[in-house]
């Protein structure tokens, strides 16, 4: 069996590692992949958004399944293109991926079908948006979101009126997020613990994975700019069985049903960013794929063949599959280039990888390349170090023990992952 994974980050490395554990012993390919992935799969040099190249490669090499992991190729219709060519693909079609690629689409869907989320308004004109923010009843902080994809950085929490105006004008007038910011959502600020729940769905059945929490800010104490994610842990201690049952009835099943009612069969992974507010769980955001770095602490806990799960989703028989999870906790710490997420240098040799692996951690490569048996940095987020343990404390300790062995010129990582 031949499987091609689209993408080249830590999330894709986690998917590749889990697929490699399958009893089906698949032959693995990854496009474009990275240095670490090249040790476990054949890396194919085409961009993750290149639909034509993906179709051509899959047909030429008789690929049995293509797993489309990142948001950009999903929103651009890579699954549509693959399916049109008769290739089995895991991931939502473009119409379904709009649940992530358009905040306006997802908020409208939730409002129409009564799925709990923050109150909001949509704007395309900065003067109208500012007039809305000037209302006497407007509360701060306010949340300003770009409608489209912005690498996980398109959300600004404005503490007061002037910073809210700056965000609005930056997006609508200043082109801060390009086309993604031509429409914006202004919504109420919700309070409570944040939890991430990913779920497999075949368009009818939805099966949540184990819970997790991520850390978006660059620095300790949730300081600094938003990033793609500096670490994650699983499970979330805030996500009880009672809350899980409420989410299943009020959010998870209703979301799949709402999409179906709109004529959209959603097949793939649905990511629910949740806020556990005093009034109950609410949706902060949807993503149309595995999260990064959440995947790096969720998939190590999976105790069912991932190939089997992907097949069941594609064939719409997820309801008959029993998905099992290991009881251990997991913590992933992301090591990043100095200056990330703004400006950073690359090309530094990474030291201590073998020593880190000897501590028992799992290393997930992201921004790395391999040259003559050595690894060099090639991106902002460079590595994910995942520790597992009987308790979350054990997992956190192991992750940091492994991370402490690794170094390169000008790097950093948060020291408080798992402490929220």
Outline the secondary-structure elements:
Elements: E1 2-7, H1 10-20, E2 27-32, E3 42-43, H2 51-60, E4 65-68, H3 71-75, H4 78-84, E5 89-90, H5 94-101, H6 103-113, E6 120-123, H7 126-133, E7 142-146, E8 155-158, H8 161-172, E9 184-188, E10 194-201, E11 206-208, E12 213-214, E13 217-219, E14 223-226, E15 231-234, H9 241-261, E16 268-277, E17 280-287, H10 295-298, H11 306-314, E18 329-337, H12 353-358, E19 362-365, E20 368-371, E21 374-377, E22 381-389, H13 392-403, E23 411-412
Parallel strand pairs: 1-2, 1-4, 2-3, 4-5
Antiparallel strand pairs: 6-9, 7-8, 7-9, 10-11, 10-16, 12-15, 13-14, 15-18, 16-17, 18-22, 18-23, 19-22, 20-21
Helix pairs in contact: 7-8
What is the average of the pLDDT values?
A: 97
Helix content: 25-40%
Question: How many H/I helices?
Answer: 13
Overall tally of structural domains: 4
Distance between the termini: 42 Å
Q: Tell me the major beta sheet.
A: 6 strands, antiparallel
Low-confidence stretches: none
Number of strands: 23
Structural class: alpha+beta
What is the name of the CATH superfamily of the largest domain?
ATP-grasp fold, B domain
Coarse morphology: globular
Whole-angstrom Rg: 21 Å
> At the third CATH level, what is the topology name of the largest domain?
D-amino Acid Aminotransferase, Chain A, domain 1
Which second-level CATH architecture of the largest domain applies?
A: 2-Layer Sandwich
Percentage of β-strand residues: 25-35%
The first-level CATH class name of the largest domain: Alpha Beta
